[in-house]
Amino acid sequence: MNNNLARVDGTRVLADLHALRAIGPYKTGVHKPTFSEPHLRSLQWLVQRLPEAGLAGEIDGIGNIVGTSTKPGPKLLAGSHLESQNHAGWLDGPLGVVYALEAARVINPDPNTSGAVEVASWCDEEGHFGHFLGSRSYVGGVTEADIDAARDRNNDRSMRDALRDAGLAGRARARYERGRHIGYLEAHIEQGETLESSDLKIGIVTSIVGIWQYRITFTGEQNHAGTTRMAVRRDAGLALARFCVDIDARFPAVCGPRTVWTTGRITLDPGAPSIIPGAAEMLFQIRDDDPGVIARLEDLLRSMAAEVDKQGTVVVERIRTGAPALMDVSFQQAIEQAGAACAGGRSLRMPSGAGHDAQILATVMPAGMLFVPSIGGISHHWTENTADADIITGAVVFVEACRTILTQRDSA
Amino acid sequence: MNNNLARVDGTRVLADLHALRAIGPYKTGVHKPTFSEPHLRSLQWLVQRLPEAGLAGEIDGIGNIVGTSTKPGPKLLAGSHLESQNHAGWLDGPLGVVYALEAARVINPDPNTSGAVEVASWCDEEGHFGHFLGSRSYVGGVTEADIDAARDRNNDRSMRDALRDAGLAGRARARYERGRHIGYLEAHIEQGETLESSDLKIGIVTSIVGIWQYRITFTGEQNHAGTTRMAVRRDAGLALARFCVDIDARFPAVCGPRTVWTTGRITLDPGAPSIIPGAAEMLFQIRDDDPGVIARLEDLLRSMAAEVDKQGTVVVERIRTGAPALMDVSFQQAIEQAGAACAGGRSLRMPSGAGHDAQILATVMPAGMLFVPSIGGISHHWTENTADADIITGAVVFVEACRTILTQRDSA
Questions:
Q1: What residue in B sits closest to A214 (Cα-Cα)?
Q2: Neighbours of A389 (CB within 10 A)
Q3: Which residues of the sequence carry a binding annotation for Zn(2+) 1 (chains A, B) (predicted)?
């Protein structure tokens, strides 16, 4: 095994990550919204790297890249994404793509390991246009009508226009072939502080939590901010603020140990300083890996809405339902073994609070995920980072886990 | 006196208001942002009406119209504005312009009344580009640099571009001539429910409240909404919601009897459903006609900010300071007399909670304001309305008050 480990080139892994960081830099992070120029350049960068790993691939009709191998034996699919949130970190996405590329570069030319790692970059994991459009397209979950309807939430550009501008209109979309892959493995930064605070190096993902999202709208009475006495106001914005504070007071008694909830966006209508808001809207999200917990919280949310209905009309509308995805047990074992051999056993089984393409791939094949520590637990911000040593340790464990999975399958 | 009253043509007043309503209609209201096509068309409509009242005037270099008379004797300036808030009511502004026009049509040709009413339409009272830019320009409070800097808050178009597109670039701006006018009178809908709820027909404005405006910013820690445990979050949006609720709980003990406060806009940064807001901002406004009350409330606001500073940084920044404006006592008496003669004495002295151009004119000449009832107290909304009979009563009282003011001055 030590012989194999020597073949992971940590310097090459870091160099690749820095090459991607240099495309669309923003402070110490990057700004690469889906189909932006730096995102497209990052995709071209990956296409040019594929031959180094004995792979062939192009950008497909939805911005995915799936590099395929002609090597005989089992195929393991591995990857992540190359676009970023706005003004966000350099590792969220690229880390998993570069690990996959490194695994392919190490394993595919190795005659002693049967089979190959195939490398994927899924488009729009960050949801500029929708939810996991790239990976969902690959598993057959995106229709042409879905693409017609998708628009960039940053600037309202249609996905069709973005694909046309990128020269991708009319290209075929890569599709999942039943039986081709023995599974999917993805690496990612943890995006939390569990590993760092326990001085651990590898997270073995047991499940990816589901995301339930709600649009909660408050209707009051729009009026003049100078002439309407306080006593007769029906201020939709104030009703919304009360609701946020009330959620924070009442959810803890009902939630599970790992439940999280977030109000990420608030809009007052019309949003002018001299007008009492007649309407207000909040985007509210709950995450858990237990649908039973979500059901209890949603009941609470709806009963809270009914309680405050005397102040104005409150409507709770569920706009996204996320089923939790379980990670394959044998993949978890392979990562744990690799962590024992290459990271001094400093690994931990944990759920993923964030959504990842692995949850989409898990609907059609066994899937697993590996986490590396995030400094300060920070992510979705340009200060996101991971220590170089941890990046290299993660790469070594990832490549070893790929080899273990391929070898077990070949001998099974 | 009855002889005079007969000369107000209620049908003509209503027809004029409906003509303006038909320019840029939105549901039962209008949508005429400053320098929009329907706003400009409304200004041209007024220019074409001026000769009916023996007045001459053009749109000036900032979008004001001041129609002047060559009739000997005292001159009373009267008017309001013709642009609207977005998707707002049909009377907010046009009522005061049409009353002024009607007063000029009745009084100016009348050889028995010395002097004339001159009609003004002030640009941008609604503040699409700034605060009272039109009336402030007239009294000498707007520099060329102020115009250079002004931008449309709806679409960020510069005022220079708007003036150029309207064909007004390079035109001179009408300026206040010291001694020309004996004062300024403006009519407006009440924008509250005080008159309606007491079955009164005329509001005699005693003062226009000052507006103090604050930008309150909260800094937390931007992080991933799925991976950051509730216990370690520093959610700037939640801190803002708590602050809003806290204001509502604590202001009533410190405010005056007519103080009003409003959070009209809330922005979470970055405003994405899967990101814990790292920053949040609210635009907060307080109105009162007593600067002492405002000082107490501002102290409370700052001490509240200091208290919650442990959750994150809170900055309270005053971005607008409004001095209350007192209305001229003899103008109040003239309106009261006219109300006694023509509205059965169903009038009430009251402060204006809303800002009006009269507060700007009051800095250079005696000023007065008359209110008519608002149905349901609604304003700044397309459902804003006033009963036809109340519109006509208001016009009769307004014209009579103009005549009284001119007559008193002429005989003084």
A1: B273
A2: 10
A3: 81, 92, 188
CB atoms within 10 A of CB A61: 17
- B260 interfaces chain A, CB cutoff of 8 Å: yes
CB atoms under 10 Å from CB of B3, counted, come to 7
With beta carbons less than 8 A apart as the criterion, state whether B222 and A225 touch.
no
CATH of B2-209+324-411, one of 3.40.50.2000, 2.40.30.170, 3.40.630.10, 3.30.450.40: 3.40.630.10
Residue A311 pLDDT greater than 80, yes or no: no
Q: Which two tokens stand for residue B153?
A: 């808050």
Summarize pLDDT for A134-183 with one digit per residue, the tens.
999 999 999 999 999 999 998 999 999 999 999 999 999 999 999 999 99
- Kind and range of the H or E run holding B80: strand B75-80
Cis-peptide, bond into residue A291, ω within 30° of zero:
no
Contact A402, A76 (CB under 8 A): yes
Q: Quick check: A390 pLDDT over 60?
A: yes
Q: Quick one: A44 exposed, middle or buried, by C-beta within 10 A (0-12, 13-18, 19+)?
A: middle
Question: Is-contact A276 A268, C-beta < 8 A?
Answer: no
Distance CA(A44)–CA(A56), nearest Å, equals: 13
Strands B279-288 vs B260-269: parallel, antiparallel or unpaired? antiparallel
Could you tell me if A225 lies within 8 Å of chain B, comparing CB atoms? yes
Answer whether B324 touches A (CB < 8 Å). no
CATH 3.30.70.360 placement within chain A? 210-320
Contact between chains at A209 and B192 (C-beta distance less than 8 A): no
Q: Do B241 and A238 touch (CB under 8 A)?
A: no
Question: At residue A253, does pLDDT exceed 80?
Answer: yes
| Surface-to-core class of residue B127, CB atoms within 10 Å of its CB (0-12 exposed, 13-18 middle, 19+ buried) | middle
Q: What residues are paired with B241 via a beta bridge? A: none
CB contact under 8 A, B264 and A127: no
Contact list, A85 vs chain B (CB under 8 Å): 270, 272, 275
Parts of chain A belonging to CATH 3.40.630.10:
2-209+324-411
Strand partners, A269: A279
- Does B128 appear as a known binding residue? no
Do residues A371 and A188 lie in contact, with contact meaning Cβ atoms separated by under 8 Å? Answer: yes
Which chain A residue is nearest to residue B128, measuring alpha carbons? A272
| CATH architecture, domain B210-320 | 2-Layer Sandwich (3.30)
Instruction: Enumerate residues 6+ apart whose C-beta is below 8 A from B230.
Output: A252, A259, A260, A261
Other CB atoms within a 10 A radius of the CB of residue A143 amount to: 10
Chain B residues within an 8 Å CB radius of A87? 270
CB contact under 8 A, A226 and B355: yes
Q: Do residues B206 and B347 lie in contact, with contact meaning Cβ atoms separated by under 8 Å?
A: no
End-to-end CA distance of chain B: 20
Query: Could you read off the pLDDT of B153-196 as tens digits, one per residue?
Result: 989 999 999 999 999 999 999 999 999 999 999 999 999 999 99
CB A190 within 8 A of CB A372: yes
Contact A225 B272 (CB under 8 A): no
Cβ separation of A237 and B264 shorter than 8 Å? yes
Whole-number Å distance between alpha carbons of B343 and B190: 16
With a CB cutoff of 8 Å and minimum separation 6, the contacts of A45 are: A19, A20, A23
Angle at the Cα of B372 from the Cα atoms of B135 and B141, rounded to 5 degrees: 10
The torsion angles phi and psi of A22, rounded to 5 degrees, stand at -75, -10
Residue type, A382: W
Q: How far apart are CA A213 and CA A264, in angstroms?
A: 10
Residue of B34, B224, B372 to mutate for A, most A C-beta atoms under 10 A: B224
Residue A101, both tokens: 């590329």
Measured in residues, chain B has a length of 412
DSSP element (H, E) containing B392: helix B388-411
